[in-house]
Amino acid sequence: MHAAAQWQRSQHALVAPKRQCVTSAAARAPRCRSRVITAVTAYLPPAAPPAAADVAHAFKRLQNGSDVRGVALAVTPTDTITLTPASAFFIAAGFVDWLKSKGVADIKVAVGCDPRVSGPLLMPAVLAGLQSAGAAAVDVGLSTTPAMFYGIIAPGSSVNGSIMLTASHMPMHNNGLKFFTAEGGLGKPDIAAILETAAAKCEAAAVPLGDAILDAAYVLQQAVTTPATPSSWPLLSKYAEHLREMIVSGIKHPQSPDKPLTGLKIAVDAGNGSGGFLATQVLEPLGADVSGSQFLEPDGTFPNHIPNPENKAAMKAAVHAVNTSGADLGIVFDTDVDRSAIVGGDGSPINSNRFIALMAAIVLQEHPGSTIVTDSVTSNGLTTFIEQRGGKHFRFKRGYKNVISKGAELNKQGVDCELMMETSGHGAMRSNNYLDDGSHLALTAVVAFVRSRLASGGSAGLGELLADLQEPAEAAEYRIGIKDPDFKAVGGQVLQAFHDWVQSGVGNAGGSWSLEPVNHEGWRVNVDEGEGKRGWLLLRQSLHDPLLVLNVESDVQGGEHAHGQRHVGIWVARVDLGSWRCRPAAAL
Length: 588
What we know:
Elements (H helix, E strand, L loop, with lengths): L2 H4 L5 E3 L25 E3 L9 H9 L2 E2 L2 E5 L13 H17 L6 E6 L5 H14 L3 E7 L2 H9 L7 E5 L8 E8 L2 E2 L2 H18 L8 H12 L5 E2 L2 H17 L14 E4 L7 H7 L28 H14 L3 E5 L6 E5 L4 E2 L2 H14 L4 E4 L5 H9 L3 E4 L4 H13 L6 E3 L5 E3 L8 H19 L17 E9 L4 H18 L8 E3 L7 E8 L2 E9 L5 E8 L4 H16 L2 H4 L1 E2 L5
Helix pairs in contact: 2-6, 3-4, 3-6, 3-7, 4-7, 5-8, 8-9, 8-14
């Protein structure tokens, strides 16, 4: 039967069988009467094979930079499911084809997931998709994004690819896929190629994506007809062992080499994501008191707060845990543990610029003169902080892949670059294979904390490392929506007009504005606020959305309003919105 005909819905007759009667004359049983059941016919409207253009669009819209992301569950009447079992199946098969195109032989791919409630639906689809394309599949169950990469490079591992099912800090009804090889995470062109292959496979099979029956039915049929069975591997336990070894070797505790965290109280807030293992499988076995930890149980509904180090509620909850438990420090993770933040023993949040400063201070002690790569929205105070410690600050672009890739590029060019970090909490170290790993960053801070205490006789803390970090008096972010479908081109026009406006001196607030000499995205403007105080503003284009983003910091009270709303807001209101169809955000 042709594939298109095979997967069309048709009219099916569902007839219930008559009850069978058995009588016995000897027993003189009462006469059994047959109960006639009326035949029931279920009418299912035919579903024609989707058009090629529709299939291609359905897969293309799932790309989110260097990973895949979509809606996997409909939790409200307005939700449209875009990441279905069949799409996950074909994307996994596309990954295998991509690996083959890179010359990889004997393909074996590990698959893990965060605790999202759609994981049990998508995981079998991904495993079946891998096997349908000829790969061996390994089910590792609950995992973290860093662990999935470690599974490839771990000593003795036979895995040469991995997939993590996660949508990071996004709401519970979202899910996605991240892909890894021994070289690290895949880039945007790789994801585009995989999705193109997945669309072609889906079109050839004539599977109607999103169909309430046939989408999942296709995956089910493929799963039961595939002779191979995925193997299993407790990868997260293996990764926990790796992290314990990192702590032990990093501290080299003179009195307690096997329990170097004895006497230390650490409160972990995993936000009910995948990061709870760090408390129970890494810190506690090494002697730490983790009794102040919270939300360690994996729960894909995320009932307490969004697992996100940038989220104010998440950081507030972690600060509360540290303060109430009397912990020496706290650790906050996002859902899949590729991002993290710290809370000091005094309850001070250490995220964003402060976390980058902390990691820079630690790194520059062992790598003097090293270059620290960050995203574009870091503060002036961070640059001063890094330079005072003999380091160099390379302010690059938003997007953790951009930041990490730039660090790797600089190292190839002979520039010493140990740390690459974004204000979102994403970060990587050269010594950790350039892996975007929130657990590694957090534990690097723990190791530095213990070593500092040993050196000082028990009185030092992480706060001392940040004592001279200059922080802005005010900071804000504004978003300017672009209605035009060609938002990239329109955004570029607006950015050029902004550049010309600043350069002309018309909008530079009495000569106090000057363009940053080097800009890698958008235009950053330095603001002389008098008496040695400096503010700045950056107008840039969003990486994925039809937006321009304006970031503003000021060293004086009221400066943020003056720079961001009064000056730039006036300019935005005067640009030709009729031709650009550009809508200022309400804050402007």
